[in-house]
Every structure is written in structure tokens, then in C-alpha cells.
């Protein structure tokens, strides 16, 4: 029994799928303690959009540490925070004509979601929050209440209340606009649903199975929430920071949410950092009304500032678009070549392959790991093979990973026959 099995809680998860001890990583590659290299199509569940140890971020961090730059400030002012705010405004918000106040709630995505829910309820005076089927927003109680996964919800141990679930785009088939139901519920005094404080959604449901909301559906949802005075919260924790091509996942739809939550790849280096973007008139917090010990994590501000250099110009965005087409076409060709019943969906560099045989995705993931590729599954039954390569992955590395998936699929099919 190794040290992890002997001493670590049974709650550990990913190590069961990827049973090796990792020692180092660079770019799109991870290396274990035995020196074996693995191509990374997981990217820390979307934390490492720019790959492992990118030099420009590493050098900025090392320089900051060497000069004894302050590491922890709560919400006191710091040079590191000032530099991040200034660059975020200049590089991200101003070019997109977005006016948001910035709140640093704590180090993780679930902290950002909790703050967003709390603020929406405060400013509207209402309690209910509408979420969607197969949503995932975090593991703390507020975020869990608007998460659809029954297994995760059961872990709360108490009733999860003040949330109402509606069908996500495509949940009831391609011929049904699920927003007809939401709009009917909001307009009908006999529906039994009170006017909600907020609607929270992921434009691409990552953990839920790479379910992609269409541009038209997102635009209509924005119209509905505006019509009824409902705060629209976009959870961009996993699919923001360029994962779908644009920096924000909602940009393609041309909508402007009232509140946006960011984390995961915000620091660009795997350092914990979260951010809530708030429409200025909704910023009604009293000083100290919401706080967190690690909301002033200066090393993360340093790497986050450096990471925004990737967004000066359109080079990265254009490269993501090209790689997205390669992934989509390769996966569709793979299914057709093997005669497999499944579907490919995604945007940018988050893609999923859903199989009718729900066990196939997990078997492919295992076979890929044996061949040196780290790739996870998603969906309520782990029926979706989920691709999350780094945005900066080289095209030959991407092609190698796709070829390994094909080999993994062949292996999984041969074992079943």
C-alpha cells in the first residue's frame, strides 16, 4: 500500500483514473516519477489553459518572489493587485466595452459562485435562483444547491433549497426550445415558481457532459432575464479565460451578463485565484460584508497579469479556432470510421464525445492513459469523453493526442468484443 492509500482520505478521485506519481511538467506534457511522459488532455480540469510552467509566467513569478514581493494581503492594496486590475481593464474589459466592478472573493470557483448568489439575493431581495439540468457550479452548499448532479448533491447531507431547475438547451431534444418553459413559468401566476433573484448558467456545461448552449438560446435567455428584472450570472469558471475561443464564453452570443464568475485559468499558472465581475449598480456590498482569508493572493495576481499577455491581439484566439476545427473533424471521422453510435460537441478547445454505450468513455480514458495520454470523462454517467488540451498546445501534439484517442477506442472496442 503506498503512502497515499495509507494516509489520504478515500475521497480522492482523479488519482484512481490516473494511477501514477507525477513529478514534473512542461507545456502539454507531464512526467511521472519513473520518467514516463504523458500528453495532457486534462489541463487540471481547465486550470492550465496555457500549459504547464509557461516561461513568461514562471519568470514573472520568480522575479516577484526573489525581490520578496508580498504574498498575502487580504484585501489591502498591493502593487501586484494594482498591476492585475490595470491590465485586466486595458486588455480584457475596455476592448470589449464591458463595465464591471471587480470583487476578489476567495481562491476558488465555488467561492466566486457563492459571492455571486449572495449578491444577487441581496440586491433583488428575492431568494430563488434558477439553474439548469446537468449544471455544475461547485461543492460548497450554495453552489451545490444550483448543481444538478444527484451524487454531488447527496453529499451535502442536508436539504438544498432556494433553487429551481429548468431544462438546459437541448435537454428535451433538438426540436424543443426549453426557454418556452422557463418563460411560461415566469409569466404564469399559477406556476408555483416565485420570481427568482437570478439565473445562473454555464454557456458550455463542462462537467455536465460538454453540453453547448446555442447562440440564439443564450440571446433569448438574456432577453427574458432583462424583461423580468432577473440577475443573469454566467459561470465562466471552467470555460472562460479563452477555453471556448473568446476570453469570455458568452462573447460569441453578444450578450452582457450582470455578473460573471472566473477562476481556474485566471492565474494562468495553477495558483488559486477567483474573480467576480459585477455590473456597477449591483455592487451594493457593505465593506467586509463578504470576505475571505485568501482573497489577496499576490503571487496569483502576478501570474494572472502575465497571462493576460496572451490576449494582446488575436493570435491565440485565431489559433484556438483552427485547433477546434481539427478536433471536431478528427473526432467525427473517428466515429464514422469505427461505426460507433455517438455524438461530438464542443466549442473552442473543450470537446466531448458522448457514446450510447455509457461505459465506453471510461474504457477509452483508461486505454489512453496506458498509452501515455491523460484524458477524463464527464456527464452524469461518465458517458462523455472530454477533451481539454491546453490552448497553447502545438498542432502536432494535438494530432498525436487525437491519434492516441483513436488507438484507445480501438482497444476499448476489441476488449468488449
Task: Quickly describe the structure.
The chain is of the alpha/beta class. It has helices at 3-7, 14-17, 43-46, 55-66, 79-93, 109-124, 141-145, 150-154, 179-187, 215-228, 298-307, 315-338, 360-370, 395-416; strands spanning 22-26, 29-32, 37-40, 101-103, 129-132, 163-166, 198-201, 204-205, 211-212, 231-235, 259-262, 275-278, 342-347, 350-355, 373-374, 376-378, 384-387. Helix 4 packs antiparallel against helix 11 and helix 5 packs parallel to helix 11 (298-307).
Q: What does the model show?
A:
- Belongs to the class-III pyridoxal-phosphate-dependent aminotransferase family.
- Its cofactor is pyridoxal 5'-phosphate.
- The chain is an alpha/beta fold and 417 residues long.
- The protein has two domains: 3-53 and 315-416, Aspartate Aminotransferase, domain 1; 58-311, Aspartate Aminotransferase, domain 2 (3-Layer(aba) Sandwich).
- The chain contains 14 helices and 17 strands.
- It has a seven-stranded mixed beta sheet, with helices on both faces.
- β8 (204-205) and β9 (211-212) form a beta hairpin.
- α5 runs parallel beside α11 and α12 (315-338) runs parallel beside α14 (395-416).
- The mean pLDDT is 96.
What share of the residues lie within helices?
A: 25-40%
CATH architecture of the largest domain: 3-Layer(aba) Sandwich
Number of strands: 17
CATH superfamily of the largest domain: Type I PLP-dependent aspartate aminotransferase-like (Major domain)
Q: What is the name of the CATH topology of the largest domain?
A: Aspartate Aminotransferase, domain 2
The N- to C-terminal Cα distance equals 34 Å
Give the DSSP E fraction (strand runs of 2 or more residues): 15-25%
**Mean pLDDT across every amino acid position:** 96
Question: Under the CATH scheme, which class of the largest domain?
Answer: Alpha Beta
Into how many domains do the coordinates divide?
A: 2
Biggest sheet details: 7 strands, mixed
User: Which strands sit side by side, in order, in the main sheet?
Assistant: 4-12-11-10-7-5-6
Q: Count the DSSP helices.
A: 14
Low-confidence stretches: none
Shape: globular
What is the C-alpha radius of gyration, as a whole number of Å?
21 Å
- Secondary-structure class: alpha/beta
Amino acid at each position: 500500500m503506498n503512502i497515499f492509500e495509507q494516509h489520504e482520505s478515500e475521497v480522492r478521485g482523479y488519482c484512481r483514473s490516473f494511477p501514477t506519481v507525477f513529478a514534473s511538467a512542461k507545456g502539454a506534457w507531464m512526467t511521472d516519477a519513473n520518467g514516463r511522459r504523458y500528453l495532457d488532455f486534462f489541463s487540471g480540469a481547465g486550470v492550465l489553459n496555457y500549459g504547464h510552467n509557461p516561461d513568461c509566467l514562471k519568470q514573472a513569478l520568480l522575479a516577484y518572489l526573489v525581490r520578496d514581493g508580498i504574498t498575502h494581503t487580504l484585501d489591502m492594496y498591493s502593487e501586484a493587485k494594482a498591476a492585475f486590475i490595470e491590465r485586466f481593464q486595458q486588455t480584457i474589459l475596455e476592448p470589449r466595452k464591458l463595465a464591471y466592478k471587480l470583487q476578489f472573493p476567495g481562491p476558488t470557483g465555488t467561492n466566486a459562485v457563492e459571492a455571486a448568489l449572495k449578491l444577487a439575493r441581496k440586491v433583488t431581495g428575492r431568494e430563488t435562483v434558477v439553474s439548469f439540468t446537468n449544471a455544475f457550479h461547485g461543492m460548497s452548499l450554495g453552489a451545490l444547491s444550483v448543481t444538478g448532479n444527484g451524487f454531488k448533491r447527496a453529499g451535502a447531507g442536508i436539504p438544498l433549497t432556494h433553487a429551481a431547475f429548468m431544462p438546459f438547451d437541448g435537454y428535451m431534444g433538438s426540436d424543443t426550445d426549453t426557454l418556452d418553459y422557463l418563460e411560461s413559468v415566469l409569466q404564469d401566476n399559477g406556476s408555483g415558481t416565485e420570481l427568482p433573484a437570478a439565473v445562473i448558467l454555464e454557456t458550455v456545461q463542462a462537467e455536465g457532459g460538454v453540453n453547448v448552449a446555442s447562440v440564439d438560446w443564450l440571446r433569448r435567455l438574456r432577453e427574458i432575464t432583462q424583461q423580468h428584472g432577473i440577475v443573469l450570472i454566467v459561470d465562466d469558471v471552467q470555460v472562460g479565460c479563452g477555453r471556448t475561443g473568446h476570453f469570455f464564453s458568452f462573447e460569441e452570443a453578444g450578450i452582457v451578463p450582470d455578473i460573471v464568475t472566473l477562476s481556474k485559468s485566471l492565474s494562468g499558472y495553477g495558483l488559486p485565484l477567483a474573480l467576480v465581475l459585477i455590473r456597477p449598480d449591483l455592487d451594493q456590498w457593505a465593506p467586509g460584508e463578504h470576505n475571505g482569508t485568501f482573497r489577496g493572493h499576490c503571487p496569483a495576481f502576478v501570474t494572472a497579469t502575465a497571462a493576460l499577455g496572451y490576449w494582446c491581439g488575436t493570435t491565440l484566439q485565431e489559433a484556438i479556432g483552427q485547433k477546434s476545427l481539427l478536433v471536431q473533424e478528427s473526432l467525427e471521422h473517428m466515429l464514422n470510421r469505427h461505426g460507433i453510435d455517438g455524438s461530438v460537441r464542443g466549442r473552442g478547445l473543450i470537446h466531448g464525445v458522448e457514446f450510447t454505450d455509457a461505459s465506453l468513455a471510461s474504457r477509452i480514458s483508461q486505454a489512453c492513459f496506458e498509452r501515455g495520454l491523460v484524458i477524463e470523462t464527464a456527464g452524469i454517467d461518465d458517458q462523455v469523453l472530454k477533451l481539454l488540451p491546453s490552448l497553447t498546445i502545438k498542432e502536432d501534439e494535438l494530432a498525436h493526442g487525437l491519434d492516441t484517442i483513436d488507438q484507445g477506442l480501438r482497444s476499448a472496442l476489441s476488449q468488449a468484443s
